[in-house]
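User: Could you check the structure of this?
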Amino acid sequence: MQIQIFRSNRNWDSALLPLDDNTFGMILQFRVRLIRVEPTTRFFSSETYATGNGILHDTYGRFQLDAWTDEEWEAYKRRFVQVVQRHWSDKFILDPNRAWYRPRLGAALTSALIQCGLSIQLVETAAQAHQTYRIIHPRNPGFRSYASDTLRSGLFTHADLESHWNGRLTRVGSEQHNIDFLQTTINHEFGHTLGLGHVNGSGNNDRAYGVTLNERENQMGMGGLLTASHARPWINSLRYRHHLLPEGNPREHHVTFTGRVASPQLIEYWDNDWRPAAATS
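Assistant: Sure, the predicted structure tokens are below.
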């Protein structure tokens, strides 16, 4: 198997590096441009626009924009990198279906696994950026942040780095429970940047964010739970960017990888209708 260490792409770059005889590290590398939107900023982004009069117009309403202080903006940039990397990096492992890596000439093939990492570098110009995000500071709540992997852009608020609770009636078995889900918006939206869709289909209707508890607690639903399916961006980068190029052995063409979550996670929902099971004698 021939290994291509570095690959470049419009959405992100990737690197596949051997760590030892049985382990590789694969890093998705993002160059991100954050644009500070002030009340006087003019921009047009699909159905969202601002004309410089302090009002943001959007499908969901009109939003009064507040100005950023320099301290707020610098803190936001630092925390953006920290929050996204902490949530998405080093959370998945890719397991091969067979031995594929020969660490040195004459050595036996090993079933080397791949650890999945993610890094973000902030850049200043559009020419440098894989992704461009505008950041607003709305005075009134209710703006729905969004990101597009195809347009390589997004529009987020100053509050999107904080975790928040959303309550929804959710199916638990055959019953409907009133459940509060904890989610950090920026991590959900960065999932879209990675090419992940909503847990239960396309669109922004309530059903797309899940119906059952398992669906709604998902990161691409209303919660923060990562699952094996969220490793797909790393698997796709490995496959479609040709980091691994089969050579002479036909078996090398049949090496596939399956993702799994690398460590336990916190439960980030609260079932307001949960009741302990009745005791039995």
